[in-house]
Amino acid sequence: MERKRADLGATWTADRRQFLRQTGAVLGTAALAGPAARAVGANERILLGMIGPGGQGSGLLRSFVAQKDVEVAYVCDVDAKRLAAAATTVEKAAGKAPQAVKDMRRIFDDGAVDAVVIATPDHWHAPATILACDAGKHVYVEKPCSHNIREGRLMIEAARRSRRIVQVGTQTRSAEHVRRAIELLHSGAIGDVLAAKVWNSQLRANIGHAQPSDPPAHLDFDLWVGPAPLVPYQSNLLPSIWRWWYAFGAGDIGNDGVHDLDLGRWGLGVETHPATIAALGGKYFFDDDQQFPDTQTVVFEYAGAGKKKQLIFEQRIWSPYVQEGFENGNAFYGTKGMMLLCKQSGWQLFGPRNKPGEAVTAKLDSALHHRNFLACIRSGARPNADIEIGHLSTTLAHLGNIATRVGRVLHFDPATEQFAGDEEANRLVRRTYREGHWGMPKGV
Questions:
Q1: 73 to each of 49, 69, 165, how far by Cα in Å?
Q2: Nearest by Cα to 293 from 308, 307, 314, 309
Q3: Per-residue model confidence (pLDDT) at position 323
């Protein structure tokens, strides 16, 4: 950590302000708008801070610490037990203990740190990303990238003004079998793709009912809540259960559903927000404290130039069944055929009258997505799941939740990211923050 480094943006001059591109019809990853971020030297290790190394973060930590060109310099968690476990993981893998801190600002203040991985609860994703970008760090942030629509827009602005790489953890964007499937869809393998359906069908647990209580001694609950409104601790709030609460998560549509919504949007070839959203849903099965729907059907209609397109989302998180051969999956409907796609296992093409066509069996390798992030830090190119891509797909989850909550068809302006003449729905584009908290993003 004694290494001295000039500011990552200061070394760029006007004659180097050019656009870089990763070629390929499927990649479509244009270089950073404006001056690119300083590329880390080929022989330099990328110094990394891991924020939120429990749960999903524990898998990310193991992946990044295994990269030979990465040094995990910090681990950060508000849970002392998870923090100690993460530090031990790094020390065993790398032979060197990282600095273990509970306040992410310690990492942001260290000018030697190149990048951070953010795997906190959803309500911290945007605030931490914006703080990191403004501190000169590249960011790998877990999905959903934001807690609400407004935060996603602020994340894009932070990435662009700081000229930093921000990769969203929708790892299927880097999966070779998925990229091949999308290439086929875009090249007309099933004709014009006018509709897609994605489903989130699995069996979740009942979280029960609980009353406020004292948090455990090893948890800094005030720091965990952060810029969200302060609420009392209760035992069915965390770990992981926070995703079912309006103040902290985005429901399962934003948890698992966002992966397949992202693939559905990608396969349809739409690069904007939908204009019309209709939804039905609620708690049909669980009798517990969950606030988001366990059953949900959302229809998104895109009304851009050319033909209209439709994206359908179905959720049943009380179901032990495997739908269309996949627990979670995608179906693309074209004028000349159909494709079934599963991010975890492969895809199958069908022609007219369900005639079987090309098929691929594969296994998802998330490390490819992590490598893409690291490569883009060095090259300055935009990553496969750049924050702008992540924002478009995550907004689908937020739009679905808003339409379900208000219970009516909504008309959304993709340019302004507002609902036409609908004050109730527009209030849900943003959130309420804890007044004066250091983590509240500017511009909310």
A1: 6, 13, 19
A2: 314
A3: 82
pTM for the predicted model, two decimal places: 0.91
Q: Give me the long-range contacts of 29-33 (CB less than 8 A, separation at least 24).
A: 29/381, 29/382, 29/383, 29/384, 29/386, 30/382, 31/380, 31/381, 31/382, 32/160, 32/163, 32/165, 32/380, 32/381, 32/382, 33/160
Can you tell me the distance from the alpha carbon of 444 to that of 438, in angstroms, rounded to the nearest whole number? 13
Whole-angstrom distance, CA of residue 139 vs CA of residue 115:
6
Residue 241 is classified by DSSP as G
- The backbone region for 281, taken as left when phi is positive above 0, alpha when psi lies in -120 to 50, beta otherwise, is left
Fold of 174-208+223-364+394-427: Dihydrodipicolinate Reductase; domain 2 (3.30.360)
Neighbour tally for 59: CB within 10 Å: 12
Q: Which amino acid is at 276?
A: T
The answer to whether the CB of 388 falls within 8 A of the CB of 60 is no
CB 276 within 8 A of CB 417: no
Q: Delimit the domains of the chain by residue range.
A: 29-171+368-385, 174-208+223-364+394-427
H helix intervals, 233-366? 251-255, 257-268
Is the separation of the CB atoms in 137 and 115 below 8 Å?
yes
Answer yes or no: are the C-beta atoms of 281 and 404 closer than 8 Å: yes
d(C-alpha 145, C-alpha 369), whole Å: 15
Structure tokens of 286? 């669980």
Which amino acid does the sequence have at 219? L
Whole-angstrom Cα distance, residue 58 to residue 117?
Answer: 11
Tell me which DSSP letter residue 38 carries. Answer: P
Q: How far apart are CA 295 and CA 286, in angstroms?
A: 10
Contact 295, 310 (CB under 8 A): no
Ordered strands of the 99-101 beta sheet: 99-101, 70-76, 46-51, 115-118, 138-141, 166-168
3-class DSSP assignment, residue 87: helix
Contact 252, 241 (CB under 8 A): no
Parts of the chain with a pLDDT under 70? 1-39, 41-43, 305
CATH fold of 29-171+368-385: Rossmann fold (3.40.50)
CA distance 366 to 314: 25
